[in-house]
Amino acid sequence: MRTLVRSMSGEQGRRVTLRDVAASLGVSHSTVSRALRGASSISEKTRKRVQAAADELGYRPDPMLSALARYRNDGASRSSKARLALVVGPHLRARFSAFSEAARVHAELLGYDYELYVWDEKMSARRHSQILKSRGVRGIVLCPLIQKLEMEHPKLAWDDFSVITFGRFVAEPKLDCVSENQFHALRLCLQKAYEFGYKRPGLVTLERTNIRVGDRYRAAFDSFMLTLPEESRVPALITEHGIQDKAEEWIESEGVDLLIGHQFIGELLEAKGWRIPEDIAFAALDKQGSDVSVTCYAGATHDDLEIARLAIAALNDQITSGLSGVPKSPKTVLLDTYWSDGKTIVEVGGA
């Protein structure tokens, strides 16, 4: 039978199907389908046997037919369209409003319903999973859920959803992610600092923030400093506690003339009486392209609306490929930042 099917495929151009593989093994086509998808309900021995038969027959999945089959199966089990959800902590709801709107537009263009789902810390992750599933949510863009800048451990029913995170804030499990390129953002700020004539730019950030971005801030800054003469190098200030007081001491002792950090650090210094840019210039690492409320800051700007589009596109790819749960090999998509001028940096002598 296997030889006959191969002959038909090669000589007559007929695609080898799941039913052909199933017939050659004497099992159902649904067993073959589950085995090739790596379903846990199929034993390892059977999976290997099915894969070997599929390879021998020259079976190759047809992605368009697979997507159509999933669409038909979904349509038979629900009366509404599949839904995507942006899941976000209440402290970020306002900040993510433009991001959410961009995600909604792209989701609807792809034929999905969409909702902004605000996380409630008082409710269990199991209950959140039940609510999301009951609403027909198939895919989730997961944003930070708690206000503390710490790695998070949400315990959603991952197998029920396709998931992508906005940023690397989930410690476990490891999930697909889309984010701004923090390494590029830091290097861009350093490049602009020298273009504006500053001689001793320095980095200030929280240790937990640096951990959340995979140590990219430290790596970008330290590797850049190694290209400078030793007397021109400034040590980064990456600390967890007392950042305000430590930053003041560090600025004075290291002769820092431009500070690179997140906007809240600039606000802390201004609250202590520092004038920006008169006393020290400031380049922000966390400007959002859609946020018009912080246009006074110069700095690296991430296109959050494009990140929203990429997140929805990635979810759509997962759903149409029949992928859900925790990926075996998580992927990260990084979007480079761009520079935005602002009032916190001015040209200085020698620029």
UniProtKB/TrEMBL annotation:
Coiled coil: none annotated. It comes from the Bacteria. CDD domains: HTH_LacI (cd01392). PROSITE patterns: HTH_LACI_2. GO terms for molecular function: DNA-binding transcription factor activity; transcription cis-regulatory region binding. Keywords: DNA-binding, Repressor, Transcription, Transcription regulation. InterPro entries: HTH_LacI, Lambda_DNA-bd_dom_sf, Peripla_BP_I. Gene3D superfamilies: 3.40.50.2300, lambda repressor-like DNA-binding domains (1.10.260.40). This is LacI family DNA-binding transcriptional regulator. It comes from Pelagicoccus mobilis.
